[in-house]
C-alpha cells in the first residue's frame, strides 16, 4: 500500500478500531451531527443499493409486492400487543408536539406549548402495528390471502452505544409483513424467507451463515418463533444477519384482522414478518476485509474492475488510451462495471492503494512497455496476487476471474468459520475459551435460568438452535440436567 494511505490499524492490534477506521477511510459512512445517526456516503450507498436490488428481485420471485406505510405510529397502536410494546418501549422516540415558534428574543425557535398532540406519535421502531391496523381494511375473505407485502424504509431505535452500520439509532432496512389463512402457510412463509436471506448471504455476499431458531428469550417481541441466520466475523464474534418471525395470530387478534374462511366462518389472520438492514454492510466488511482495506465480492462491488495506465510520453499515453477503449467496451458488454482512471492529478501508487482500500475486485495496469509486449498486469484484490496476461482475450479472462474471486472469498470465509466451531461439554472450559471468540455447540436444558447464567458469566448468548447439526443426547453444561437440545453459543455484536 502506498505510504500516503498506510493508516489502517491492523486487525490483530485492535479489531474494533480497524473496523471503525475502515468504514470512514473507505468512504462508506461517517458520523452525523445527530447523535447516534450516520451519513451513508455515495460509495457505501452504492453497495447498499446493490443489496437492495438483488434482494428485492428475490423477494418478488416469491410473490412479494412493495408498499410504503407511515413513519409515525399512534402510541395507542403499540399498546395493543403487550409483548411487542414491552420489547420496544425503551427504544422508542416519541413526537409530542407538531409546531415550533420563534423565541422571545427572536434569535431561535422553541417548541410551541400550545401545539401539544392529543396522542403522542412514535417514530417507527418496526411497523407491525401500523401495517396490521391497515390490513384490517384490506382483508375480509380467504380470497384476499395470502397478502405478501414488503417495504424499504428507515426505522428509529434509540441506541446508547452506536457503531457505524452495526448499531445506529436510525438505520435503513426492509421489513416484510405477510398475512395468511392458515398457520401452516404462515410458518412455511417465515421459513421460506429465512432461506431467501441465507441464500443471498452466501451466494451474493459470500458470507457463510448458520440457520436456526431463536430461544424464547431471544425471540422477536410478539413472535411465536424467530428464525435467524448467524454469521461469524473475523474476530470470532457472531453477527445476527437476518431474521424471520412467525407471529401466529397475535397481531391479527390485536388489530381485529378477521376473514371469512372457506367454511364461511370468521377467523383471525396468521402473520409473519422478516427483515434485514444496513447491518449487512457491517457483516460484509468484517467477514472479508483485510489490513489493506475492503475486500468486496464482485456481486456487490459498485466497481468491479479498474484500469490504471502507467505514465509515459504523450504519444505513448495516447496509444495506451486507444488500447484500453476496446477493453472497457468488451467488459461493459459482459455486464462488468469498469473504470479507466487516467486522471493525471494522482500518482499510480496512490491509485493502487486507494482502489485496494475500496475493495475493487480486479485491477488492470497497462503501460507503454506492456503495450509493446501485448500484455497487461492483472491483480486480484482477494489474494493481492499479480500476473501478466495477454491483452488478447483479457475481457473473457477477467469475467472468469471475477467468478473465481466470488467463489474464493466465500470458501475462505467458510473455512475460517468452520475451523472456529467447537463442541464443548465442560462449562469451565467454555468460560475460558469463549472470550477468544468462536461458535460453541453446547447442550442446553431449555431453561431461561441457564441461559441467563451463561450471559451473566461470559457475555455470550444462545444465538440459535442450529439447523444442520446433529442433535445428540447429553447433559446441560451449566446445570447438569438432561439437555433438550444442542445450541450455538457465542459472543455477538
Walk me through this protein's architecture.
With 493 residues, the chain is an alpha+beta fold. The chain has three domains: 15-71 and 134-288, Bira Bifunctional Protein, Domain 2 (BirA Bifunctional Protein, domain 2), CATH 3.30.930; 305-404, Anticodon-binding domain (Rossmann fold, 3-Layer(aba) Sandwich), CATH 3.40.50; 423-490, C-terminal domain of ProRS (Translation Initiation Factor IF3), CATH 3.30.110.30. The chain contains 14 helices and 25 strands. The chain has helices at residues 15-25, 42-61, 75-78, 82-88, 128-138, 183-203, 250-254, 279-288, 314-333, 348-357, 368-373, 394-419, 427-434, 448-458; strands at 29-31, 38-40, 65-66, 72-74, 93-97, 100-102, 109-111, 116-123, 147-156, 170-180, 209-213, 225-232, 238-248, 258-260, 266-268, 270-277, 305-309, 338-340, 362-366, 375-380, 386-390, 421-423, 439-444, 461-466, 485-490. The strands form six sheets. The protein has an eleven-stranded mixed β-sheet, with helices on both faces. The protein has a five-stranded mixed β-sheet with strand order 18-17-19-20-21, with helices on both faces. α9 packs across α12 (394-419). The longest helix is centred in the C-terminal third of the chain and has 26 residues, at 394-419. It is globular and about 80 Å long.
CA(first)-CA(last) distance? 30 Å
Task: Predict the CATH topology of the largest domain.
Answer: BirA Bifunctional Protein, domain 2
Helix content: 25-40%
Q: How many individual helices?
A: 14
CATH superfamily of the largest domain: Bira Bifunctional Protein, Domain 2
If strands are numbered along the chain, what order do they take across the biggest sheet? 3-9-10-16-13-12-11-24-25-23-22
Q: What share of the residues does DSSP label as strand, in percent?
A: 25-35%
CATH architectural arrangement of the largest domain: 2-Layer Sandwich
Amino acid at each position: 500500500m502506498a505510504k500516503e494511505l498506510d493508516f489502517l490499524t491492523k486487525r490483530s492490534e485492535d479489531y474494533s478500531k480497524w473496523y471503525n477506521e475502515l468504514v470512514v477511510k473507505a468512504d462508506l459512512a461517517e458520523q452525523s451531527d445527530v447523535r447516534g445517526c450516520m451519513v451513508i456516503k455515495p460509495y457505501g450507498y452504492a453497495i447498499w443499493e446493490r443489496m437492495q436490488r438483488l434482494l428485492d428481485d428475490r423477494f418478488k420471485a416469491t410473490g412479494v409486492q412493495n408498499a410504503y406505510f407511515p413513519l409515525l405510529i399512534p402510541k395507542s397502536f403499540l399498546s395493543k400487543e403487550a409483548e411487542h410494546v414491552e420489547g420496544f418501549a425503551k427504544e422508542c422516540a416519541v413526537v409530542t408536539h407538531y409546531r415550533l415558534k420563534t423565541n422571545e428574543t427572536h434569535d431561535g425557535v422553541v417548541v410551541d406549548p400550545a401545539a401539544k398532540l392529543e396522542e403522542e406519535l412514535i417514530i417507527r421502531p418496526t411497523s407491525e402495528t401500523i401495517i396490521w391496523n391497515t390490513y384490517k381494511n384490506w382483508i375480509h375473505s380467504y380470497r384476499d390471502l395470502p397478502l405478501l407485502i414488503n417495504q424499504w424504509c428507515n426505522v428509529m431505535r434509540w441506541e446508547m452505544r452506536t457503531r457505524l452500520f452495526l448499531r445506529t439509532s436510525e438505520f435503513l432496512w426492509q421489513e416484510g409483513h405477510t398475512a395468511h389463512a392458515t398457520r401452516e402457510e404462515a410458518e412455511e412463509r417465515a421459513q421460506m424467507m429465512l432461506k431467501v436471506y441465507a441464500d443471498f448471504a452466501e451466494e451474493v455476499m459470500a458470507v457463510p451463515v448458520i440457520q436456526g431458531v431463536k430461544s424464547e428469550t431471544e425471540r422477536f417481541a410478539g413472535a411465536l418463533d424467530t428464525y435467524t441466520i448467524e454469521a461469524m466475523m473475523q474476530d470470532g464474534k457472531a453477527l445476527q444477519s437476518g431474521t424471520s418471525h412467525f407471529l401466529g395470530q397475535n397481531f391479527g387478534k390485536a388489530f381485529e384482522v378477521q376473514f371469512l374462511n372457506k367454511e364461511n366462518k370468521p377467523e383471525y389472520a396468521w402473520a409473519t414478518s422478516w427483515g434485514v438492514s444496513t447491518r449487512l454492510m457491517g457483516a460484509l466488511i468484517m467477514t472479508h476485509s483485510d489490513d489493506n482495506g475492503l475486500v468486496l465480492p464482485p456481486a456487490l462491488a459498485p466497481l468491479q474492475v479498474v484500469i490504471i495506465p502507467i505514465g509515459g510520453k504523450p504519444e505513448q499515453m495516447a496509444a495506451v488510451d486507444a488500447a484500453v477503449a476496446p477493453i472497457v467496451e468488451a467488459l461493459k458488454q459482459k455486464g462488468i462495471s469498469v473504470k479507466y482512471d487516467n486522471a493525471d492529478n494522482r500518482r499510480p501508487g496512490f491509485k493502487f492503494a486507494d482502489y485496494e482500500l475500496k475493495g475493487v475486485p480486479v485491477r488492470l495496469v497497462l503501460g507503454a512497455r506492456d503495450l509493446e509486449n501485448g500484455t497487461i498486469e492483472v491483480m486480484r484484490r482477494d489474494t493481492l496476487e499479480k500476473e501478466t496476461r495477454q491483452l488478447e482475450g483479457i475481457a473473457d479472462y477477467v469475467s472468469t476471474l471475477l467468478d473465481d474471486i466470488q467463489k474464493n472469498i466465500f470458501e475462505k470465509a467458510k473455512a475460517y468459520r468452520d475451523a472456529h466451531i467447537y463442541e464443548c461439554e465442560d462449562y469451565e472450559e467454555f468460560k475460558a475459551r469463549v472470550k477468544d471468540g468462536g461458535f460453541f455447540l453446547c447442550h442446553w436444558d431449555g431453561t431461561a435460568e441457564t441461559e441467563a447464567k451463561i450471559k451473566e458469566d461470559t457475555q455470550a448468548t444462545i444465538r440459535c438452535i442450529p439447523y444442520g447439526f446433529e442433535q445428540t443426547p447429553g447433559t446441560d453444561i451449566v446445570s447438569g440436567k438432561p439437555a433438550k437440545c444442542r445450541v450455538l453459543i457465542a459472543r455477538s455484536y
